Amino acid sequence: xxxxxxxxxxxxxxxxxxxxxxxxxxxxxxxxxxxxxxxxxxxxxxxxxxxxxxxxxxxxxxxxxxxxxxxxxxxxxxxxxxxxxxxxxxxxxxxxxxxxxxxxxxxxxxxxxxxxxxxxxxxxxxxxxxxxxxxxxxxxxxxxxxxxxxxxxxxxxxxxxxxxxxxxxxxxxxxxxxxxxxxxxxxxxxxxxxxxxxxxxxxxxxxxxxxxxxxxxxxxxxxxxxxxxxxxxxxxxxxxxxxxxxxxxxxxxxxxxxxxxxxxxxxxxxxxxxxxxxxxxxxxxxxxxxxxxxxxxxxxxxxxxxxxxxxxxxxxxxxxxxxxxxxxxxxxxxxxxxxxxxxxxxxxxxxxxxxxxxxxxxxxxxxxxxxxxxxxxxxxxxxxxxxxxxxxxxxxxxxxxxxxxxxxxxxxxxxxxxxxxxxxxxxxxxxxxxxxxxxxxxxxxxxxxxxxxxxxxxxxxxxxxxxxxxxxxxxxxxxxxxxxxxxxxxxxxxxxxxxxxxxxxxxxxxxxxxxxxxxxxxxxxxxxxxxxxxxxxxxxxxx
Length: 543
Known about the structure:
By secondary structure, the chain is mostly helical. It has 22 helices and 2 strands. A two-stranded antiparallel sheet has the order 1-2. The model has no long low-confidence stretch (mean pLDDT about 85).
């Protein structure tokens, strides 16, 4: 196996990257309707302030987009429950803060929201979730600490958020063409676009993203498992994906590493042109990240430290929305990016927020009535879904006024809102970027993942001593998961600490080669026990 150290991309490539090539307007329309329909009913019944709370639960539909029907409803139910629970918990905390009065009681809201953000960052990285991760859940939970000023009790807040969540669940299950079909269509188009044009690192990144998404969709839809087709009625989707995968792997690729274009890696090895295994269980992924050097743990600490620092300084300066600074820090750090991509994301947050606050200013000056406010919220929801996995600048332009309007900022003085929210964003960017460059840049995560990969290989070898590869599906699946994680950690190490990566690179390549050679042997003869000599030879390579 011969893979050079990945080079580093330039500033402009990172700043202008568009991450997802797929069509998103149908899902965006559902997201807007999930807010507009129940919001209209609330207005007709005279529940004016409650309309804003429905928007909190309406984010449920965003979490279901791109998932096959088989898993979509479960994803949305979990997301809806988290959104509703977050609004209730946030409203309880907010009721204490605003009843006590006094600026420093806002520290309670800051600690609560920063803690939720840290837990969300840990879970989404441990499980390797796709965007938007925990972002909207934390945004809603933090924003709920402010709703006590509207005179609503926490259970009432949760009930109205539940209306939005239920609306999102119903609309989310009404999508037309199956997600796995759309994913394969998008993959073929992305590969064709890359093949037809100049060897662009951005186009390659989009094709890799589409490939990773297609394999995940086929697994979630129950089409593939254990590296093989289990639903032959949809086997053509698998064969089309394999063809696109092999075509992409055979094309001449640009020298830059496309994984640096985003802080949400694809966890796919383009050279592996075989049907992949599915993901391990949730408990396996969470347990594997319960270590102080893990990427998930390191990211959670960065999020907590930057978020709390920005919030506390904001409170000291007299601002009253600590959740705003915390959500801003989370948006930059939530996936544990490398230094340069994370800095770009910070600039995205700053630029997008400034433009978003400008859009909010226009809406404020228009003095919208309640129906106009509902329309504005729905439009922002639409475009937030369009851009949430494409480009952070464009996404933040629309999430910023959405969050401000949900917090009833239209009733506050415009100048005060603009100054305070802009300053809080700036504080969060400063603290988040500082942590990216000077804090917790730990090479031990890669060393830990190398050891986990070795242990996964030894576990598989032990299982193969007693039975056939077909009876060791869980061990094969776990080994693939660890190898992909180790590969991504090696790429991250090369981006942040290139000297340390260079010293380990040959060891990394040898580990990947041995692991995939073992998996290939299992795939070639799944029903036949491996000879003892072959198993011993692999074990000797690891000792």
